[in-house]
């Protein structure tokens, strides 16, 4: 019964939200201040390069050899001289987003614990005894005859 209550509560929504935030919260695409130094420290990475023609190309498996930045734009090989790179963008840390994701995660964890402890303090089992009860579901109303009472203890 506790699982059914948890499944229908906000716990699943909170968990999904925290999962999404943790996936995107710690990095963002930002402009790199020193492209040459950045690329020499991180070979075989994904970057977005704006070349001399002001066109931005997304390069995977990017690396610097001598004074040339090279990589693949889809299946096409691309090279540009480091001196011609107008802007280099890459995934960089986002401390503000990380702090926000951690804060939301802590609040969500507290809500989950509160939900589970409140579910544990309620009766673990309920039985419909007499009368009528109607519950609305997306598929239509569900009419129950009787009232809910705690289940008898089991051996």
Structural features, described:
This protein has 155 residues and is an alpha+beta fold. It contains four helices and ten strands. Strands 1-6-2-3-4-5 form a six-stranded antiparallel sheet. A two-stranded antiparallel sheet has the order 7-10. It has a two-stranded antiparallel sheet with strand order 8-9. It is elongated, with a radius of gyration of 28 Å. The two termini are 18 Å apart. The model has no long low-confidence stretch (mean pLDDT 75).
Give a quick set of tags describing it.
single chain, alpha+beta, two-stranded antiparallel ribbon, 155 residues
Could you describe the largest sheet, including whether it forms a barrel? 6 strands, antiparallel
Total helical elements: 4
Structural class: alpha+beta
The Rg value, from CA coordinates, equals 28 Å
- Residue fraction in strands: 35-45%
Quaternary organization: single chain
Quick one: how many beta strands?
A: 10
What is the rounded distance between the termini? 18 Å
Please trace the helix and strand order, writing H or E for each element.
HHEHEEEEEHEEEE
Shape: elongated
Strand order of the largest sheet: 1-6-2-3-4-5
* Uncertain segments: none
Portion in helices = 25-40%
Mean pLDDT: 75
């Amino acid at each position: 019964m506790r699982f059914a209550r948890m499944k229908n509560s906000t716990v699943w929504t909170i968990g999904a939200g925290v999962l999404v935030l943790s996936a995107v919260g710690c990095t963002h695409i930002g402009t790199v201040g020193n492209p040459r130094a950045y690329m020499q420290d991180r070979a075989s990475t994904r970057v977005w390069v704006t070349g001399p023609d002001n066109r931005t190309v997304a390069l995977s498996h990017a690396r610097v050899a001598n004074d040339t930045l090279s990589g693949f734009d889809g299946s096409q090989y691309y090279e540009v001289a480091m001196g011609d790179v107008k802007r280099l963008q890459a995934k960089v840390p986002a401390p503000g987003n990380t702090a926000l994701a951690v804060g939301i995660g802590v609040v969500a964890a507290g809500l989950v614990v509160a939900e589970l402890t409140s579910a544990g303090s309620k009766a673990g089992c309920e039985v419909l005894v007499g009368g009528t009860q109607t519950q609305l579901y997306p598929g239509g109303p569900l009419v129950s005859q009787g009232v809910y009472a705690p289940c008898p203890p089991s051996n």
